[in-house]
Design brief:
With 402 residues, this protein is an alpha/beta fold. It contains 16 helices and 14 strands. The mean pLDDT is 92.
């Protein structure tokens, strides 16, 4: 058995009215920043904040009456869990979810709010998946795999239908890969509608299992990643066959690019994406020259990110761009010196956020003090201007690196 275009169009009919036909918008600010032409499909607008509810709902509709009564079980890092839980609750189908123990709290809380029975088990998705198989057999539940299931894949494929219906001019699609259900579904729909379209899959370093399996390389190393939604060590058997047949290229991006993508989407487009949800943007940031002259479609496929984590990403982005810096300066320990020092920074356009005043340590001369100043700037060139102004004013200063 394999995924078919007819299965995707049938899924689209089942989902009509229950899942949003999300908009595809021209990402004008992002395109200008990258020097590319980019359109974004906003799956973050779905009720559960992710594309995953498409596949989950389609699979629920395919259950027999007996299977509906007994309930379903799945392993998920969060978004598949929320989609299954929400639509299970809506349709009156009991849902049990196995989640890795380190799953972000925001995803656990949202899934619980939709009425699912949550089992936190395993250190990663592979261990949670093994537990879901065991519990399914013990309790007589139907396993709804997050990606290696034809019904789930067909549901995700409805994104491809919508993309090329709304934007038939697109000639390249850049799609994240975890287990491969999203890319396999979109690839099946897109290649049927437009055989010449270029399909690029994106994986994060340490979890590039699909690429490695297709190229017969050893299993990836794993590790911690911001893109936990695509942190899959073993891709699907069904998804692998579709991707091998239809996808033109799979690229791997570094963890730093994922973080940068979340920051970039927030700052350029005023949109929120989780790490895995911004993987397509990460690929464009990593290698814009590979997409020059093409009309690119990608999606923000998930927006369920912890607020504290998002805050840290945005602050780290300011540091990375030189817009939030720490400068160490030497001042004479005399009345009024700190005021003059602050005045130099203010006239140079810097905004002081925090000052740490050191005068008691033995490596500082007795009549001198050392100031560590955190300040907001306009970027690297502005930092150089501030340092020059401080040094010219008699305050020897240097930039402190990370």
């Amino acid at each position: 058995m394999t995924l078919t275009f007819d299965a995707i169009t049938a899924a689209a009919e089942r989902l009509r009215g229950a899942v949003l036909h999300t908009p595809t918008v021209d990402a004008l600010a992002l395109s200008a920043k990258l020097g590319l032409t980019v359109a974004l499909k906003l799956e973050t607008l779905q009720r559960t904040g992710s594309f995953k509810e498409r596949g989950a709902l389609n699979r629920l509709h395919l259950l027999s009456a007996d299977a509906r009564a007994k309930g379903v079980i799945a392993a998920s890092a969060g978004n598949h869990a929320q989609g299954l839980a929400y639509h299970g609750q809506r349709l009156g189908i009991p849902v049990t979810i196995c989640m890795p123990a380190h799953t972000p709290f925001v995803k656990v809380a949202k899934t619980a709010r939709y009425g699912a029975n949550i089992v936190l088990i395993g250190k990663d998705f592979s261990e949670s998946e093994a537990a879901s198989h065991r519990l399914a057999a013990e309790r007589g539940l139907t396993l709804v795999h997050p990606y290696d299931d034809l019904g789930v894949m067909a549901g995700q494929g409805t994104i491809g239908l919508e993309l090329l219906t709304d934007r038939p001019d697109l000639d390249t699609l850049v799609i994240p890969i975890g287990g491969g259900g999203l890319l396999a579904g979109i690839a099946c729909a897109a290649k049927h509608l437009k055989p010449t379209i270029r399909l690029v899959g994106v994986q994060v370093q340490g979890f590039d299992a699909m690429r490695r399996q297709l190229q017969h390389e050893p299993q990836p190393a794993g590790g911690m990643t911001l893109a936990e939604g695509i942190a899959v060590k073993t891709p699907g058997f069904l998804t692998r066959a579709v991707i091998a047949d239809l996808v033109d290229e799979i690229i791997t991006v570094e963890e730093e690019r994922i973080e940068q993508a979340v920051q970039t989407v927030a700052e350029t487009q005023n949109l929120i994406a989780e790490g895995a949800g911004a993987a397509g943007i990460a690929a464009l940031l990593a290698s814009p020259e590979s997409f020059t002259g093409q009309k690119i479609g990608t999606l923000l496929c998930g927006g369920n990110i912890d607020a504290r984590l998002l805050s840290s990403i945005l602050m780290r982005g300011l540091v990375r761009d030189g817009r939030l810096v720490r400068i160490r300066s030497e001042l004479g320990d005399l009345p009024g010196t700190l005021s003059r020092y602050s005045d130099v920074i203010g006239k140079a356009g810097g905004n002081i956020v925090e000052v740490h005043h050191q005068r008691m340590f033995l490596d500082v001369p007795i009549k001198q003090t050392e100031i560590d100043t955190m300040m907001e700037t306009r970027g690297a060139d502005h930092v150089r201007d501030i340092l020059e102004a401080l040094n010219e004013a008699g305050f020897p200063s240097r930039l402190l690196t990370d």
